[in-house]
Amino acid sequence: MQLSPSQIPREVAAILTKIQKAGFEAWIVGGSVRDLLIGQKPKDWDLTTNASPEKIQEIFEKTFYTNEFGTVGVVNEETIEESLKVIQVTPYRLEGKYSDARRPDNVIFSQKIEDDLKRRDFTINALAYDPTSGKLLDLYDGIADIEAGTVRAVGDPNERFSEDALRILRGIRLAAELNFSIEEDTKKAMGECSQQLGKISKERIRDEFIGIINSSQPMQALVLANTLGILSYIVLEIGRGVGVEQNQAHSYDVFEHNLRALQHAADKKWPFEVRIAALFHDIGKPKTRRWSDEKHDWTFHGHDVVGAKITKKALEDLKFSRETIQTTEKLVRWHMFFSDPDKITLSAVRRIIRNVGPENIDSLIKLRMCDRIGTGRPKEQPFRFRKYQSMIEQALQDPITVSMLLINGERVMEVTREKPGPRLGWILHALLEEVLDDPAKNTKEYLQERAKDLAALSDPELQVLGQEGKERKNQEERDKIRDIRKKYFVE
Ligand code: ATP
Ligand code: MG
């Protein structure tokens, strides 16, 4: 494996030569060199030098000091390429002492590149390249590991993971992204040091978890994490599906089913929203699994409702954004959406879209495909999918939300004596309920007249109508949960 200076973007080469002309050493280092050798575009460029942070700042016009580790961001204003806008230059660092398995107690700069490579996590990340001299520094046989597809810790793996337990997840994530395997001693040490992950912040764990989910091999990674006892430090609930046998329609336990659904999304290169929903979609099953004498099989009543709640909690714990939490929760909640496309009505489809949100309907369909494949069943017959798709397309032309009604709050106030307040919302929602059943009613004239009738109703009457859809939904959920409780829980 070789590198040529022509692989290095002009902007990066310019920074290196500028530092070198000022009398210092400078290298491209870490993941950027790894990616170049593999033939992938590096996500970011990391440079390292024996110049101090102060010197680096002197050499370049526009810089900023990014963190307490001596990293200086060199700003490139002339590029549109995201990865080149800020290039990180970090002085050679020595591994400081770690007393908390998270962060070095203090940062010590060094004059030797060897020190800097020694502190890096994996051999494939401990490479340095200087395009000026053409030197590729490989002190830990990182190139051989790249060729063999191996993730191996630099030095003693137990020591390295005890210093910083996040490296365990970084290793699993890298293996999943690169489709590499993890060297045996490194793997063993990951398991032995897994408890140290308890000290790592949720945000850092979340970021590696996202990396795993977005990788090409998320299933393999999460199976390994489970085997090594690491999964519980990521999302405890996912592991609860291990060994939870399902009904006859399924070939796999709940854990494997969720993972296979996720892997299908990864194979299809579908976006993160679909992947995470696929991973969580049946997370409510372990809690809701009951034996039915009648059916001679397991049942999972309410697993969608329970699953949505578990999902919300798990993602909140991991400090996911509100947006991600809400979308995933909705997809899990409504993943059971379709019955037979020959039986479902258009108004039911419209309600599904209303529930999950028009912006998520495409993800919901993809999730459905993942669910099927994850079951071990063949792909849905194409004609059925075409039928779903065409029903959705048709339904999307009709009003699904209050904002799509041909009347708005202001107009309602004009034709009635209503004032801004909850009654106005109830009226609009009551109108939407009617229009969901019959889109032909979405005309200015009809809605105006209907708004007048509705305005004549008392608060309680109107509230019932306006919240009918929502209420109906909530009632269903309450019934489902009560049902489960009554039947199976002591309370
Ligand atoms: P990515 O492709 O996601 O950027 P990366 O390996 O480049 O992966 P970065 O977070 O960009 O990861 O870090 C750059 C380099 O810094 C790594 O390749 C590695 O050499 C080193 N590094 C990062 N985090 C750690 C860590 N926790 N312990 C030791 N070395 C680390
Ligand atoms: Mg990187």
Q: Concise description?
A:
The protein has 491 residues and is α+β, with helices and mostly antiparallel strands. Helices cover 53% and strands 8% of the residues.
Helix-strand layout with pairing:
Blueprint: H1 10-21, E1 26-29, H2 31-38, E2 46-49, H3 53-59, E3 63-65, E4 72-75, H4 82-85, E5 86-91, E6 93-94, E7 108-109, H5 113-118, E8 128-130, E9 135-137, H6 142-148, E10 150-151, H7 157-163, H8 166-178, E11 181-182, H9 184-192, H10 202-213, H11 218-227, H12 231-234, H13 236-239, H14 254-267, H15 272-280, H16 285-288, E12 290-292, E13 297-299, H17 303-317, H18 322-333, H19 346-356, H20 361-375, H21 382-396, H22 409-415, H23 422-437, H24 444-455, H25 459-466, H26 468-488
Helix pairs in contact: 8-10, 8-11, 11-14, 14-15, 14-20, 15-18, 15-20, 17-18, 19-21, 23-24, 23-25, 25-26
Bound molecules: adenosine-5'-triphosphate (ATP) and magnesium ion.
